[in-house]
Amino acid sequence: MENGSAKRSAGTDASANGAAANGASPNGSANGHLPISARLLGVGVRGARSVGKATGIDRAVEVAAEEAIVGAIESEAVERAMARVLNGPVVEEAVQGALESDAVKRALLEAMDSELVDEVWRRLLASEEAQQLVERIAGAPELRAAISAQGAGLIEDIGRTIGKIARDLDDSFERIVRRIFFRKRRELPSPDAGFVSRALAYVIDGVFVNLGFTALVALLTLLDNAFGGGNGGASNWAIAVGSTAWVAIGSSYLLVFWALAGQTPGMRFLGIRLTERRLSLRRGLKRLLGLYLSVVTLGIGFLGVVFRENRRGWEDRFSGTEVVYDERRPDPAPWSQPAPPPASVVVAAGSEPALHPEGAAAGEDQQGDVDREHDQGTERFAGTAGTDRDA
After folding, report:
1. Can you give the pLDDT at residue 192?
2. How many domains are there within the chain?
3. pTM for the model
4. Cβ proximity of 174 and 195 under 8 Å
5. Are residues 125 and 213 in the same domain?
6. Which residue has the higher pLDDT, 274 or 226?
7. What is the rounded CA–CA span in Å between residue 250 and residue 205?
8. 142-151, 188-197, 352-361: range with lowest mean pLDDT
9. Is the separation of the CB atoms in 286 and 259 below 8 Å?
C-alpha cells in the first residue's frame, strides 16, 4: 500500500512538472491556450497591421492627422482665440502671480547664487567676443559724444552756480556803494547785469586773451632764436610792439564774439549777454571805444553800472546796447518730456475716436464671430419652434 501511494504521488508530481513545462498550470487550466475569439481578434489585428504597413495606409493616416493638426493650429479662428487669451487678464494675472510667488523668488535667488551662474559669467567675461564688444562700445562715437556732453554740462553747471553767486554779489555791491554815496537804494531787482558779473566776465576773457598772446610770443621767440636772434634782452621797441599786439588781440577777441554771438566766453560762463545777438562792426567799435575810455579814466565810465537804474556804462551808452542776465536753463531730459498721444487715439471735436488699423481689423473679426454665432442660434431656435408646431 505504501509503495502504491508513493508511486501515485510520484506520478502526480511528474505530470505536474510536465504540464508546467508545456505551459499549463498545475491546476489543469491551460494558460497558454487562449479562447478562439481572442485568437481570431489577434490574428485580425496582426493581419491588418501587416496590410497597413505593406500598402502604406498607416503612414498616410499619420501624415493626414499631422496635416489636420497643423491646419487647425494655423487657422484664423485659433489665432483669434489665442489673441483673446493673450490680451485677456488671464495671462497677466498668471504672470503677476508667478512674479509675486515666494517660491519663484527663492528659485531665482538660488539660481543666481549658484556656482553654475558664476562660472557662466566668468566664461562670458573672459571670452573674446566680450572683449570685442567692450572695445566696440568704448570706440563708439555715440559714447564719445555723451562723454563730451557730460563734460560740457559740468562746465555749464559750474558756470550757472558762479553766475548765481555773482548776481547776489551784484545786488550786495550796489547796495553798499549806494549807501556809501548816500544814494537811494534800488527798490526792484533789475534784469540788467551788475558790476561784479561784468568784472568777472572781463577777467575770464582776459585769461583767454593772455593765453593766446603768450602762445604767440612763445612762437615768435622760438623763431627768433632759430634764425640767430636772441640778444638776451627786450628793447623798448619790442615792449611797444608787444603791448600793441596785446591790445589788438584783445580788441579783435571782443569784436568777433560780440558780432557772432552777442557775448564773449566769459559773459557766457557768467550767464550775461548783450541785448543784441549780433552786434554790427560799427556799434562794436563804439562799444570798444567806450570800454577803453572807461579804463583810461580809472573806472569813471563804469559808475553808471552802479548808480543808473538801467545799469548802463559808457560802453553801453556809446553803442546803444545793454548787458542783461541770460536766463539759461538745462535742456530737459528726453524721458522727462510728456510723450505725444498716439495718432490712433487722437479725437477730433464731435467725432468718434479713430482706431488703429490692426485694432479695427481685430474688432471686425470678433464682431463677425459674434454675428455668426447669433445667426446659428437663431436658426436652431427657429428649427426647434417649427418642429414643435408640427408636433
Report:
1. 92
2. 2
3. 0.50
4. yes
5. no
6. 274
7. 9
8. 352-361
9. no
221 and 272 assigned to the same domain: yes
Flag whether 87 is in a domain.
no
pLDDT digits (tens, 9 = 90+) for 79-105: 787 777 777 777 778 878 877 888 888
Query: Quick one: pLDDT at residue 73?
Result: 76
- Mark whether 184 and 111 lie in a shared domain: no
Q: What are phi and psi of 30, to 5 degrees?
A: -85, 100
Number of Cβ atoms within 10 Å of the Cβ of 211: 10
Any idea what the Cα angle at residue 23 is, between residues 22 and 24, rounded to 5°? Answer: 95
Report pLDDT for 337. 52
Report how far residue 303's alpha carbon sits from residue 134's, in angstroms, rounded to the nearest whole number: 59
For the record, the C-alpha cell of 291 comes out as: 570800454
Please calculate the CA angle 379-383-388 and round it to the nearest 5 degrees.
150
Residue 250, in any domain of the structure:
yes
Structural domain span for residue 118: 102-138
Whether 122 and 157 share a structural domain: no
- Rounded Cα–Cα distance for residues 29 and 32 (Å): 9
Query: Lowest-pLDDT range, 77-86, 244-253, 301-310, 332-341?
Result: 332-341
Query: In the listed set 325, 356, 379, which residue is the last one of a domain according to the structure?
Result: 325
C-alpha cell recorded at residue 353: 475716436
Q: What is the amino acid identity at position 292? A: Y
Question: Taking the CB of residue 294, how many other CB atoms lie within 10 A of it?
Answer: 20
